[in-house]
Structures are given as C-alpha cells and as structure tokens.
Fold this sequence. Notes:
The structure holds 4 protein chains of 4 kinds.
Chain A: H1 3-10, H2 16-48, H3 50-55, E1 70-72, H4 73-76, H5 78-98, H6 123-128, H7 134-155, H8 171-195, H9 222-226, H10 231-257, H11 261-268, H12 272-298
Helix pairs in contact in A: 2-8, 7-12, 10-12
Chain C: H1 2-17, H2 32-47, H3 53-58, H4 67-75, E1 86-88, H5 94-97, H6 100-119, H7 129-138, H8 143-170, H9 179-201, H10 206-217, H11 243-248, H12 255-286
Chain D: H1 2-5, H2 7-24, H3 34-41, E1 47-48, E2 56-65, H4 80-83, E3 97-98, E4 101-102, E5 106-111, E6 116-117, E7 124-129, E8 132-134, E9 137-141, E10 146-150, E11 156-160, E12 170-172, E13 179-181, E14 187-193, E15 201-207, E16 212-214, E17 220-226, E18 229-237, E19 241-249, E20 254-262
Parallel strand pairs in D: 1-6, 2-20, 7-10, 9-15
Antiparallel strand pairs in D: 2-17, 3-4, 5-16, 5-18, 7-8, 10-13, 11-12, 11-14, 14-15, 18-19
Amino acid sequence: MDWHQLWTILSLPDNVPIIGLMIVIPFYTWYAFRQAFANDRLIEQLEADPEMAKTHHRKTQPFLKGWAREVHVWPYLLRIEFLAAIIVTAILMVWSITLDAPLEEPANPTLTMNPSKAPWYFLGLQEMLVYFDPWIAGVVMPTLIIVGLIAIPYIDTNPLGNGYYTYKQRRFAIWTYLSGFIILWCVMVVIGTLIRGPGWMWFWPGQTWDHNKLVFEVNRDLHEIIGITDPLIYGIFGFLVVAGFVVLTGFAVHKLLTMTEFNRKILDRMTLLQYLTMQLLLITMVGLPAKMAARLLFRIKYVWVTPWFNV
Amino acid sequence: MPKPAAPDIDPVVTKSLSVPLLVSTLILTLTLVWGIYDEVYAMRPWKRFQADFVELYSSHLAKLKPEQAAKEKAVKESAEYQDLQQQLEAAEAEARQRMEEIDKVVNRGVTPRLLTARQTFQVIKSEVDALTYQIEVASSDSAKQSLRDDIAAIKDRDVEITLVAEDGSGEITTAPMKFAVLEAEYLRLQNKRVEMQAERAKLLESAGQIRAKRDAYQANQLAGLNEQQVDGLIAKMDNFGVDIKQIHLNDSDWVDRCESCHLGIREPVEIKAEDVGGRAEFISHPSPDLLKIHNPDEFGCSTCHNGNGRATRSAVKGHGRHKFWLWPMWQKENVQAGCQQCHAREVITEQANVLNKGRTLFLNKGCWGCHRFEGFDKESDDLAQVQQHMSIIADQKSANEKERRESIAAGDTEQDTDKADALYKRAELLTLRSAKLDAEYDALVVDEVSLVQEARKFGPNLKEIKVKLRKEWVPVWLKNPHDFRPGTKMPEFRLLDDEIQKISAYLWQNAIDGKLQAHPQGDAAKGEELFGTRGCLGCHSMGEGDDTQGGTFSANLTRVGEKSNYDYLVRWINNPADVTPDPETGETASHGIPVMPSLRLSMPEVRDVASYLMTKKTDAPYAAADFMDDPQMAKEGLTLIRHYGCAGCHEIRGLEEEGRIGTELTLEGSKPVERLDFALLGHEAEAEGWYNHKGFFERKLKDPAFYDQGKVKAHLEQLRMPNFHLSDDDITALTTFLLGAVDTTLPEHYRYQPEDDRRFVQEGWWIVRRYNCVGCHQISFGGRTSLMGVPLYQDPDWKEQLPPQLYTQGARVQPDWLLGFLENPALSETDIHRNGIRTYLHARMPTFNFSERQILKLSQFFMARSSQSMTYVAPDMEPLTATEQQLARQLFQSRAAPCLKCHMTGNPARDLRATAPNFLTASSRLKADWTYRWMLEPAKIAPGTAMPSELFRQDGDRWVFSGPLPASFSGYEKDHADLLVRYMFQLTPAELSRLVAGGVQ
Amino acid sequence: MAEKTTKKTGQEAGTNGTAGNGNGKRLLGIDPEAIKAKAIEDLEAIKQPTKTDLYKSIFRVKHDETPRSRTLGVLSNVFLHLHPAKINRDAVAYNYTWGMGGISFYLFWVLTWTGVLLMFYYHPTKVQAFRDILYLEHDVPFGKLLRNMHRWGAHAMVLTVWLHMYRVFLTGSYKKPRQFNWMVGVILLVLTLLLSFTGYLLPDDQLGFWAVTVGTNMARATPMLGHEGPFGLMFGMTAYNDVRFALLGGSIVDSNALLRAYIWHCVAIPGFAATFMIVHFWRVRKDGGISGPAPMMLEKEIKPLRR
Amino acid sequence: MRIWKTVPGWMMVGLMSFALACGGGGGEKGGDAAEPAGGEAAGSADFVTVDPAKAATVTGKIKLNGEAPAMPAINMSAEPDCKGLHQSAPPAEVVVASNGMLQNAFVWVKSGLNGKFQPSTTAVHLDQKGCIYQPHVLAVQVGQPLSITNSDPTTHNVHPLPTTNREWNKSQTGGGAPIDYQFPRQEIMIPVKCNIHPWMRSYVSVVDHPFFAVSSADGSFTIKGLPAGTYTIEAVHEKLGSQETSVTVGDAESKDIELTFSAS
C-alpha cells in the first residue's frame, strides 16, 4: 500500500471537489430516498383508504386545519436563503484560505503531462475515450447526453410523481436516471480522477503511479478475432453485429418496459416518436457499458470497422 | 395574523432561525477575521523577519560602535592624522578673517540690497514688457507711437527706493532713481555677489583639500566603518520601515524581493551568522567583490541564484523549491551554476572555481566526445562551418563566372552600342565581385588549415596501436582502465570478456602496420632526472597513491613500460606530431595533431627519457591474446565499437565519420525533469527528495549504471555511459556545470558576450585549458600549477626554477615578440635544444603544435588580460647621452647594484647559474613602462619573485638607487630607474661585454 | 414590538410638525425662534430615520408584520420580486428543495464579482497571463483569496448545479408544465461546464494547458467538421480549418486560444448564462412557482390522455 | 586542582608584567607586522606567566648517528667582496656535527602547552657577513622583532620563503638600514635566502611561545622557564628531518633528554 501515492492524489487541490462529490452524492441520494419511501408509504395508505384520500392533504409534511396553506416569502423563505448564503460564503472562505488554487509550471507545449487530464467534470468523457473513438466519446456522446436530457420531459409520459419524491410511482425513470448520472457519469469521473494514472492506466487506490508500468494488452477488432479479412465483408459483418445489438437491446428494453401493468399503461400513452426516441437513447446508454464490457473482458477494440469510421 | 385554532403551533411560521443565523453569522465573521489575519500577517512572513533583523542587527551595531570608536580614536591620535588636523586648522584660521568680512558684506549688505532693487526693478520691467507686447500687436503706427511714448515716460519716471548700504553697516538710504540707473545698479549688485562668493570658495579651497586628505587618511587607516557611520546605521535601524524591499529591473521587468528577508545582504558591515543570533538568513553577501561587478540594482538576485524573486509568502515559495517552479534556487554547493547561465561562452570565469572545475573536467575528461556541448569541440564545428562557407563561395563564384562569360558573349553580338556597353559593364562588375570572392575564399583557406590542425578527437589515435602498444596489454586495459592506471581519463565500460576480445581484435587488425626506426637504449638514470626536471610533470604524473607527483592533465606514467614499444616512445617524445603512414595507402591519422608538445630534447636525451619510461613497470602477468588475430572476432567487434561509441573519442579505422552517441548537453539543465530518465527510481527519488536535476546528475555521474537498477535488460540494452570514477568534488563541479547549462530566460543583454578585447580573454582560456598552460605557469591569480606541487620544487633552491608567472604577461612583453615566441620558444632556428629566454631553467618551454590561429588568439589573450592592444608601437625613447651611458654603466658595475649577479650575460658557464634573463633581450621583448615599474617594485607585479624590491627609493619626484652611489652621480638630477631602463633598451652586445668585463666579478 | 414603536413615532412626528409656528423676535427679517424650531424638527427627524423622505423614497414599504407590508416588501423590491409574495407553506422545507438552485445562483454572483475583480489584474496574453497569476498570489491585496474563491466557487457551482438537476429529476419537477424550464436548465448546465472549462486555461499553466488540449482534441474527431472525425477528410477538413481550429483560433493551444477562452469566459458565456437564468427564473414563476412539495397523485387518478 | 587556585595570582602578575613591558618597550614597531601584534596586546590578562621559582628546565643534546657528510666548500668566486673576507672557502653550512653531536638543530616544545605567552620584545638579530647568514638557524616568537642587518660591502636581498606567513623580498645595501620584521604566525624553519648569492641560507622558526632553542656546536640546548607538565619536544633539522620525544617535568624540575638523528 503506497500511502504516499494515495495522499498525493487525494491532496491535489483540484481533486478536492471529487472528494466532495463522493460524499455529497451518496448523502443526497440517501436524503432523497428517505423522503421518497416516506411518500410511498403514505401513497400506499391513501390507495388503501379512499376516504382518507379524500380528506388528506397528501403530503408527508405535517398539516393541521387552520394552518395557513401559504406563507409569506418575507421572512419565511428569505431568512433561509440568507442563512444559506452565509453558510456558503463561510465554507467558501475557509476553503479558499486553507487551500490554494493550483498553479503548475508555465504552459509548455513540448512537455506532455502524463497523465494529462481534462477538468474533473469532463473526466467521464475522457474515460469514455478508452472505449470509443473520439468522435463517439467526444462528440456524439456529449451531444446525445444533452439532447437526451432535454428530451426527458417530452418522453416521460408518466403523469405521476410530479412535484414530490417517490420511488414507487416512477421506478423505471429513477433507475434510468440513477444509472446514467451516478454510474455512467459520477463513477466515471471518480475513476478518471483517482484511478487513472500515467498512460491512462488503471491503478487501484494505493497502487504506486509508476510511469514505467507496462501492461501487455492487445486489443483486436471483432472481425480479427473471428477471422474475417475482407474489408467489405467485415464492414457488413460489423454493421450486422451493431444492428443485432440494437435490435436485441431494444427488445430487452421493451421487455423491461412492459414488465409491469403500470408500465404498460404508461407506454400506451406514448406516441411512436416518443417511444423511438426513448429507445434510441436507452440503447445508446446501454451501449456504453456493453462496449466497456467487450473491451475489458474480451479485449475487443472495434466491432464495426469501415473506411470512414469505426465503432 | 390568524392564530391557529389547534393547540399545535404551526412549525413553519413559528420556528425561529435566530440561533442558526447567529451562529453562522459568527462563523462568517470569524472567517472574515481569519481571512484578514491571513492576508496581513500569515502570508507576510517577512514582517517577522524584519522585526527580528532590526532587533538583532541593532544590538550588533551597539556592540560594534565602541569597537569602531576605539579604532577611530586610535587613528585620530596617530601622528599623521594629528598633523593633517593641525594643517587643516591652520588653513581654516588663515582663511577665517577674510571669510567673515565677506560673509558680513554679502549677507547684510549686498544680498538685501539686491533683493530690494530687484523687486522694484521687476515691477517696472513687467509694466514695460506688457506695453512692449501691446506695441507688437498694435495695428496702427500711431497707436504704436503712443505706446512707445508711454514706455519712455515710465522709464523716465523717478522711483523712490530705499536701500541698505552695501558694506553691511546697516545704513539705510532713500533716493529717487530712474529705470536705467536702477537696472545698472541691479546688475552690478548681482555681479558683486557672485564675485564675493567665488572669493569665499577660493579661500576654502586649501582647507577643503586638506580635509579631503585627512578624511582619506582616516578611511585608509580605519578597518571598517567609523563611529559616525555606525551611528548612521543605528539610526537607519531605528527608523526602519517594515515593508517589501524590492529590486525592480526596468529593462526586463524583473522583480526580486529577496532582501525583504535577507536584510543584511548589502549592509556595509560584514554580518556573520553569530553576530545576529545564528540567523544565517541575515548574513551579508559572502562575496562583496561579486556584488561590485554585478550590482544587485542592475542584476537582481534571482537572475543569478534562481528562485522566485517575487514570492514573499514563504521561504519555500521564495526559493522556488517546490514542484512547480522551474527555476529552484541553486543549492549552496552548486550556486555557481548561476554564473554559467550568462557566462556560457567561457571555460574559465573569474571567481567561479567550482564551475571552472566542472567545465575543465568536461573538457579534460572528454565528455564532449560522446555528448555534444556548444562551445566544446568548437574547432570541429567551426571547421564544418568554414567548409560550408567555402563551398557557398565557390558556387557563387562559378555562377558569377558563367554570367560574366554570357554577358561578354551577349555584348559581342549586340548591335546597339549602349546595350553592349551595359553588358560589358556588367561583366566588369562581375569580375570585380569574383576577385572579392577570391580574397574571401583565400582567407577561409587559411582558417581551414588552422582548423584542420586544431580539430581532433579527444583520445589517442587507435590506428597507431600496433606500433605503439604491447598486444596483450589491450584487453587488460579494456577490462578496467582504472585498475591499470587509477585516475585515468579512459572510463570503465563494464564490458563482458567476449566483448573485450572482439573489440581488441577489431582495433588490432585495423591498426596501421608501420615500421619504426630502431633506436639504441639510453641512460635510464639520466632519463629519470630529465623527466623530473624538464617539465614533464607539468602534465604527466608519476607514482601511485600518496607518492604520486605531477599533474593530472595527462596520463600517469607509472606503468607505462608495461604497455609501450620503446621505439615508438622515442619517436613520440622526440616529436608527437610524427605519425606512421599506412604502408599500403600512405594514409596517416586523419584529424588533428596531439596536444602533447615537443620539449625539443636532443636525441640522446629523448632516448634517455624513453629508456627511463620503459623501466616503469610491474611484473604483472599478461595472458596471450591470440584471439586478437581472429578476423571473425574483429567483425563482431565493429558492431560493439559502434555501440559503445568508441569513435567519439578515438580515431578508429572504418569509423572516421561516426557521430556522437550521447545526448546533447548544451541545455541539459533546462530539460524538463520529466524527461530525465529516472527509470524505476522516480518514486524513490520523489519520496527522498532528489527528484530534480541535481539529484539525477549526481547519481548518474557517481554511477552511470545507477538508473539500470532493478531493470531487466539485455547487456547491450543497458545504459552505455561508462564509469569515470569521479571523486565527490568532481561530481559536484560537473553537476554545477550541467545545472547551469540552461536555455536561460534572462534577457540577452545580461549575458556576458563581449565583442571587445574581453572576448579574446574568453577565447584564449579555451586554448590555455586545452594545452594545459596552467600546468606550469600561473595565469590567474591564486592558481597553483602542477609543478608547484612537485616535491623537487619545494626546495628553496628550486623555487626559482619554476616557470615564470604570467599574471601580467601582456603588460610585460611586446605582442610581436610573443607571437614569435609561441611559434618557436627556442627563438632560434638552429640552436633549438634550449629555452629562448631563460636558458638557465631546467624546465623547458615546449614547442606546441599551435596553429596560426591559436598563436594569434593566445597572444590576444595575454594582451587583453592586461588591457593591452595587439598593436604595439614602442614609445620614442630619449637617447642616452655619453655621460648618461657612463653613469648607467658605472651603476651597473657598482658593487651595490646586484643586477649582473642574477641576470644572464651571454657567458654560457655563468648563465647556468643565472636566475634572470639577458638584458639584451629587453628592447625587442619588453615594454619600457612595464620594465620601469618592475624595477621599482617587482613584488607588486609578481609576488614571490627572485627580483628584490626596494632597489630604489623615492626622492621627491624621482626614484634614486637606494644603495651607495658612484661618486659621479652627484649632480645627476634625473630618475635613476628611468636611466637604467633607457640603458637597457639601448644596450648593444658590445656594450654588454664592456659592462661585464668591467664588472666587479 | 416593531408595531408599537411605529405608532409612537407617528405621534411624535405629528407634534413636532407644529413646533415651528411660534412667534419670536425677528432680526433682519429672520425669526431665530423659528429657525431653532426648524433645527429641532430636523434633529428629531434624524432620530426616526424610517420617517425621513429619503428613507421612504428608497424603501417604499413599511417593515412591519402586517401581511400587506410583507407582501409589498417582496413585490416592490427589484431583487426580491423574483419571488412571489407568498409561497406554498411546504416549499420552504429544505428536505424538499435542497436549496441547490439558489446556492448555484448565489455562487454565480460570487463568481461574477470575484471574476470582475480578477479581470483588473489579468491580461490574456502569453507573456503576461502566467505572471499575472503570480502577481495575484504575491502582490495584490487579497489576491490569493480572490483567485482561490473564484476557483473553488466554480468547482462548487458545478457540483451544486448537478445536485439541483438531480433533485429536480427525483421530484419529477420537469413534468408538465415545466418541460421547457427543464430544457433551459440543461442549457444552463452546459453553460456552467463551459464557463468552468474556459476558465481552466486562463492561468496558462501546464494543468490548464493540457486539460484544454485534451478537451479540445476531441473536437478534432467531430464527424464531418473535424479533420480526424468520420468523413472529415471528405469534407476537406485539415488541422487548419476544422472546428477545433475555430475553437482555438489556431492549430495549437496558443495565444489566440487564450484570448478566445478569455472572451468566452468573461463576456460571452456569462452573458448567455445570465440571459438563460432570467428565463429560468421567469419560467419558475410563470409555471406556478416551485413545483412542490405537491400533493401526491394516485395511480387510479391518472386521467386518460386527450389527444 | 591546585593549579587553579593560583590563577588569580598569575593574572595579577601577568597584568603587572605587561604594564611594565609596555612602559619600557613603547618604542617603534615594524610596520608590516603591526596588526597582529596590536591585536594580541589588547588582552594582557590572557597571557600565561610562569612563576620563576617553579619554572622547570629541559636540557639535552642532539646527536647524529653515523658520519656527517662532508660539506662541499662554497664557491664564492661570483662575489669577490665576500671571498676576500674568508681565509679559505667556507663550507656550505648544512650539516654541522662534531663528535656525533649535531649543531643547528631547532628544538622546541611542539605540544603540551596551554594558553598564550607574552611575546618577547627583545629583537633577534640576523646578520649577513661574508655572504653568510649568521646565525644559520634562529628562532623568534610570534610578534618578536627580527632585525636583519648587512655587514657586507655588497648588496644582498633578504627573501624568506614561508608557507603560512607572508612572503617578501627586499634588497639591502651594504651597511644599509636594518630590516625589522615581526612574523605574525607560527611556522617552523622558514628558509631565508639571498637571490643574489644563492648559497646563502638561513632558517628562521617562528613559535607562538618562548620555549625553544637551537643546538649549539656541542649539540646541547636548554629550554628554560617551562611550567610543569608533559610536553612533546621536537628537534628539526633542515636536511635531516625531525625527531621528537615526550618529557614530563614537575615544578622547578630539570630534565635531560637526548634526540638522535640519523646521518643517512
């Protein structure tokens, strides 16, 4: 265990936000789910007891008759905002006094940093570069992420769970988001920051970041493994494999979507366009871990090789 | 507001946030206070340093004050001071009366009178000026005329004016005055005041001169500051302002705040750590001499020392000793690396001994054989450049010629006369251009000839080994040269046994198989004496361990008999420039002539020395080496020789054009540390704090295979750099040199690249170092020659036998003479087995194989070092009158004048005992002004010289001989030393023999 | 407490108002008594600053506990009128809101202010940029604190924006009628990341240089528009005319890139972000204020879709 | 320790003797060596003095084993002025021994002494007569004036060749003013030569205490006034190197020692 190395990585000023991330995200996830489960219990009660549903104010927050339904912003909201501003300022001050913003050597285009890393919030994308060509990881994926995020309200036809925490009523949506945000984004950021060392190689926490480390790793294209040599044929073959993956994943996603009665009901409310958009996004999302697995487990570099692009 | 009906209180509206608000506000206030504290105090450690310094330094000064006061008092009580003081007082007293008169008149009479007059005068004058302006702009003549009348009226007006009397008596008179009168009076008073003030200044002049003399005397006699100056420093400390002390270099926008903490650096008092409570950060600069030529106000601090001059937050930041500062402050032992940044052209930089040692090692250990370093092996670079230039000129010329021919041809066929004329003119122009190119080309040819002679590889020519060496010795040597000859320049290559065999085989089979002239044996005992006294030990050493004597510049010859061929040694000692031609091709060594000079020994002497050297051997056994004749081995050897880069230093057949195998080191110190290959040791280095250039270099030099540690590599993949077995001091010196080998960020004008005579000094040192002139001669102050360390020369009788010091050689000799002497130190074409000037010296100035260029550069070097020009026109010398000649001769012959006891006279038997040159050589060799100075005070020119001082004493403005004078001198009013110089410079052989014959011998 | 004081001062002010009417001796047509009375009147007014015209002209509303005053206090204030006068009683619950949107906005302000101050000391040129950072660290009063706050504030803002989005998703707040505002939010997220990214290069050190190099190198691979991207060569893309060249103003990260980063960072992106923020807040109000906590809807209450 | 009780008394004696010395010897000082002498004089109380009643004495003989090499005669033909002064050519006085006793060996207390000692103000004379230095070997204390005179008609130059002291070289005309010099640092056997007459040689030893002697013609020497203690006594000869021995003396004790050089 190389504690010196571990400390070097963790104490890097720019890695402090990652430490924050690793604390804050689990905390708020727990915080949200505590609320969601409380709400879900209330929902069960209300569903079981229609009478109660008629009279209850339908929130877990306490409410008694006679209490004002609305309160004045001044002072009830403003004081909280004020408090928040004070606390944030204090935290920022302490952080700024105790920890200096990094300033390394003057820029030197001839001396490549090893590892040279993008800012931490883009490390997820940089990590993706390992698995995909830059045009996918650096251009297509970010675009799809943005487009996908924007599309969420337009393809989520579930009218429930609007304005309150719930798990029960939005299982599929929440799982999708969690796997996207936490697993594919935050975890990749953490990997990119703390795990990837010189040569963008994998170093477990506590392993020395050894610049001399050599790993025998031959990644081959799928067609090479199978033994197709003709470019036309393996182009077609690759296309077929990708298409097959799309079809299979789409089918699986569809199966997943139609597993429960409730989901089928929601699915009924979707237009075809909404459905196809969702399929596209979900298939792409599944594609990432699929490619990761193919790369890490089977050492496959490309599945589909064409003269213009490779997947 | 409606109250809730239920007993429950609505938490949203009733819960108070006061406590969290209060607490968080308090915390915020605290962080603000913290922020301010951090800004004002924690981040400004220099404030504490300054407070400490003021306290410590003040108390040191308080201690110093009485000491200096006592010293000052002692000086003031000395007779000389008292004398000057009395003179001063007398002069002041003399001037006092008249001065008081002047003061009275000026202060009480002239000045107040002048002021009053001026006031009135100026009022009227401004009125007149205003009217004059109106005249200038008035449109009509009549208006102008009336204005003129107005002016006349004003000037004609009587002004009542009250003035004090001029003599200072205080009398007051009131009188009417017209403008013209007033003006005259005003100007007169002004003049008078100036005159009187000038008179007053003149009165003070003599007192002022005496005072300056007195103060100068005090300053000269007093070590350190006087009491008043110490008081001044104490006052400075009392009024010390705590603030950033900053040097800002405007031209380069360089900022250094080092003195914010290092406050004692430029104090006029020498501050040692123990003076200021052991605080080493407060000491004064250890080398004030350096600061005199590198004034911090012009050079800053971090320009030389590195570090981050702006940073004031902590020592770590300021010294730049953290990961992200590319210019960390040099460590103390490597501080001279800073010199190299700007003095990169030099091999010797005054006051930078560690750095000089590093450069000299780089030069003399042959590092440049494998590693290119700009400036080292400049001859080869220059040669390539000159040759390239020559080919360009040749091309230009042939193009020129072609166009010329074409122009003429075109002109011949042209019908139009004007056009034909233009074409002919063109052809003429081209002819002239070609002529100019020819001249340029010829100049380059001269350079080329010199450079071809100069450029050579560092090590011995291996094409000669067959005639030079004992065959069996070669593999033994290759195994580890340091076993055979500790301290040799040839490094240890960590070769495997079969590699040694293959390399030896290649070298042996590719050596020239020439025939040497056979020589009879000489007398080894005589040879030993010659070896010890002729000056061989200036470069070579003899003996092992503590018995070693001689210089380290060249090989230690303790076991030379084991390896050498006697006939070869004879040839080599006789003339190292002799080479064996290849019997088949007639080819000889392709490059350069050896550094080893010819000592101009006679052939019997040569044989004696060679015979002596052949006795220097042990009876170590040598295994037969038949494999060296195996052609297959040789074939494989070639690859290995190429791999190990042997041809970097040695001439080897088949590898004449081989390049260098090492990294270029010219900018090694600027190479990013990431580029230095720490191999598996990078993390260890980081953890142990040597992950930097210094750490890398030191370990690499100590053990060049260091970074192979832990690596699994095939033998030929391992690091190739051989082990030089350097001492720790050598490593520090080389590290210093390499650290300073940077691509400096300093602006161009900081770099020391003089274009005037100082450049000759820079260039000359390279030659001096290359030929090891300093093995025998002291050239820079404090330098010790190799000969000075040889036991023989410790004997007082042998001290005079040391070769002459050359500190001020340029001032001593005439440049033309020097050129001739360097070319042929025997100063004779026939009688060559001797020294040209000091025949009595056992050590012999050898004949070096200098090129024309080198001789010129060396002469320029010596001249420039003494601020002399290369052109010397002997000053006109007053001819001796017959009487003077008589006088001078008498003085020379007088028993009180010992000149002829030591100086050579041309009598061979006597000259053997002489210790100084012949006077006959003076006029062509010496400069008269130097000779004059030399006679008066030789110890000031050459400390430790045999020439005694105080031969002359001062008598008024002239120098007279200090011993009893011949009677005829009574009435001779001129300078005796000058007389002797003139006599010497006009001495003829005939006069010398007359002199010697009449002498008191 | 505040109410009582108000009443009392009201009475006093009334009596003081009549004090100046007494008759006194007149000197040169001036009545000293009247002047004295006026002076006393002014002095008394100072004791009641909230009564002065100056105060009233600025704060048009009384700050007492009446619902009217509270409402007006918010509505008549240019900064506070982002808020409605009243909100859902549960919307102040921290366990629902997490406060991350507000904190992000606050951090944006902090960054704007520290950023403006930093701009005074910064020149986006290759020669000066790095030196200016050293200058900030060692010379500028509070310069180090300023830069640290800017840097850490920016990192914190990225985190709070992510958390804000996380919360909005988990509470389903993007659902009708807030779909568009979600879209604005996504754009703001992108702008936040771009702001941070462009700022990374400005110190011109190895860290920023290589982070930006790595980041922009991806642009090379843009399909059709990057010279290393699919079909890039077909579209005639080279290192000197592709999208990366456009981003950096050159084929390498150099002075032009520094200037571009600077202008994007200091002018353009903050401008866009501010604009979108205005839209974002406006839509929050217009879409019915903060989404919750809303009363829960039950599965059986889902209405059939009307197309 | 008994010796410590006497320290105050010694200091008194030292103070008084210094006062006397200063009063008596306030004459002129050699310019060249003024600095160290002045510096030392500042603290008179630092000097160690020895009670004459308790002073110990070391006497002894310097012997030479084997035959002393015959010394070639000096060829003074180059200087007729001097040649005339000698009946026959004098030998080069390098190894002078009779009856196995060695003359001109310098004997001194090399180590064992503590503290500083008052330098003597009595000048030591070195004369140049007949182109020979007289005496051939002599010694002075640090700061003690050395007065060099020239009794020859010819000009000499005086050229000491020290290693730790300053080297100088002055000419001195026959009968000229004496050269006065004080050596500021201890150094044993400084060769002094005349460049004009290369055979002339003298050896001056500079010692920072007064306990030294030069062996006389019968090889004997005496070192007086030593405080009780154990000392290393060293004899140094210009050609034969050095010999040393250890000796312990008590109060007022006399010890006799013998040091033997080897001729080969």
